[in-house]
Write a structure and sequence with these properties.
Radius of gyration: 22 Å
Number of strands: 17
Number of domains: 4
Shape: globular
Structural class: alpha+beta
Strand content: 15-25%
Strand order of the largest sheet: 14-13-10-11-12-15-17-16
Largest sheet: 8 strands, antiparallel
Distance between the termini: 46 Å
Length: about 450
């Protein structure tokens, strides 16, 4: 059995891009999705076909497959490039022929994607015309609505508020659902008068976009100034936030103060709801955050104290069970914030694959080769010290040297996002894995220092 991996991140995000989005805003979303598609190379280990919207860098793919010792990975790309990779696949007869040849005579194959879209169901149906295709991470078509509902901030909040009435250990920040900007501003005034920081969340924000944070120490400027700032972001920014805020209701909720500077303050729980409705826990991790924006994750054994890990799993499985009862199937995560009193608050659900998913799967692959490896750290947004585009060839020597002679014994390092090197402000993603957290952090610092030096010398 082969996995058919579809990197449909752009397609998944496009479901929220209505006619309020300008062409420039759509392009920002498209570029962000193109970069994240690189992570699909690491889903499901060996023995797969990966279909990406644009071709991956050939040298990068060769390096990754060699370093991971994967021998049965094939790459395909449609000749067309639109916001829907599934439609592009279906419109490409040559690709469909090539896919059929790669699948061979095996009777059953798994269809894996970033998230559920209407186009993914059409592709699945077309592929099933010729062979047995099952999609273990795709909800039944009759339950497709659950992916959109649970992935939204309002859907998450409604589900978890209900669960909080039944389970003392499920907490969400105190907040309100607002249906107009004016109503949201009144709620904001309520929080400011009480001297409490607050967060504004769009109904369908993605990756930190559609979130405005106003900590307690930001309230001194007064209600009027804060109102003006909020209106700017919601109605006049015209970059990437504005249209997100103008689609659906707004959530205004209390800001949770946490102890700064630790990934342990932003836990995440990842799992898969199997076709039979059972919960398969993938693991827990600590998210690396910059304000509201996700930067990366740390996963591994005993990352949290035993009681905290048990609590995270209990909450994650409880939420997953409720999602399964609604009909949702597939990968999901639950993200948390730890407050200053060490209490867990739920912040959102992602009803799809997640940015940490490739890290959990990479750690599993690396551990199969070397059982001493028990930790992995991913930085998905490491910006390099130049202000012009690069290529993977420019940074390849650093990773090649790291693989041959790790500067920190027992560590392994892989570049995971490299399409982003083509940006005017180039960045890349990487994963460092090793036997313990401190060694991994040391290897991370050495890798980043070497990458900065290498790019400056080369240019």
């Amino acid at each position: 059995m082969k996995s058919i991996v579809i990197a449909n991140i752009i397609e998944f995000n496009a479901r929220i891009l209505n006619d309020r989005y300008t062409p420039e805003e759509r392009e920002l979303w498209r570029l962000a999705g193109v970069d994240i598609c690189d992570m699909a190379l690491f889903w499901c280990g060996d023995n797969k076909i990966v279909i990406s919207p644009l071709p991956y860098d050939t040298l990068w793919v060769e390096n990754v497959l060699h370093w991971l010792k994967w021998q049965n990975v094939h790459m395909l790309t449609p000749q067309y490039f639109t916001e829907s990779i599934c439609n592009d696949i279906l419109a490409d007869n040559q690709l469909m022929t090539a896919l059929d040849g790669l699948l061979g005579q095996a009777s059953t194959h798994a269809l894996i994607s970033w998230g559920a879209t209407t186009e993914m169901y059409a592709l699945k149906e077309r592929l099933q015309d010729h062979r047995d295709i099952f999609a273990p991470e795709l909800p039944p078509l009759t339950s497709f609505w659950t992916a959109d509902y649970l992935d939204s901030k309002t859907g998450f909040r409604e589900l978890c508020m209900q669960l909080g009435q039944e389970h003392y250990f499920i907490r969400v920040p105190r907040g309100f659902t607002c249906f107009t900007v004016e109503q949201a501003l009144e709620v904001v005034s309520h929080f400011i008068r009480q001297g409490r920081g607050f967060v504004i969340k769009a109904h369908q924000g993605v990756g930190g976009f559609g979130v405005l944070i106003y900590r307690t120490d930001m309230l001194q400027v007064g209600i009027e100034a804060i109102h003006q700032d909020i209106v700017h972001w919601i109605e006049a920014d015209h970059e990437i936030h504005t249209a997100v805020f103008q689609t659906g209701p707004l959530i205004v909720e209390e800001y949770i103060d946490s102890i700064p500077g630790s990934s342990l303050n932003h836990p995440t729980y990842d799992a898969v709801i199997l076709p039979d409705g059972k919960i398969k826990t993938i693991g827990v991790g600590g998210m690396l955050m910059e304000d509201q924006f996700y930067q990366g994750v740390v996963v591994g054994e005993a990352l949290f104290r035993a009681s905290r890990e048990k609590e995270l799993i209990l909450i994650g499985e409880t939420v997953g069970t409720a999602m399964a009862k609604l009909g949702y199937r597939g990968w999901f995560d639950v993200d948390f914030i730890v407050d200053a009193n060490d209490k867990l608050y739920l912040s959102e659900i992602n009803a799809r694959r997640t940015s940490p998913s490739h890290v959990f799967e990479l750690l599993e692959s690396l551990r199969a080769r070397d059982p001493a490896i028990t930790y992995a750290l991913a930085n998905d947004h490491f910006y390099l010290s130049v202000d012009h585009p690069l290529s993977y060839k420019d940074i390849h020597p650093v990773f090649d040297a790291f693989q041959s002679h790790p500067p920190t014994p027992g560590c392994s390092c892989l570049p995971t996002i490299v399409t982003s090197l083509k940006r005017d402000q180039p960045y890349l993603g990487y994963v460092v894995a090793g036997p313990n957290y401190s060694v991994v952090c040391e290897a991370k610092e050495r890798l980043e220092s070497t990458l900065r030096e290498n790019t400056l010398i080369a240019h």
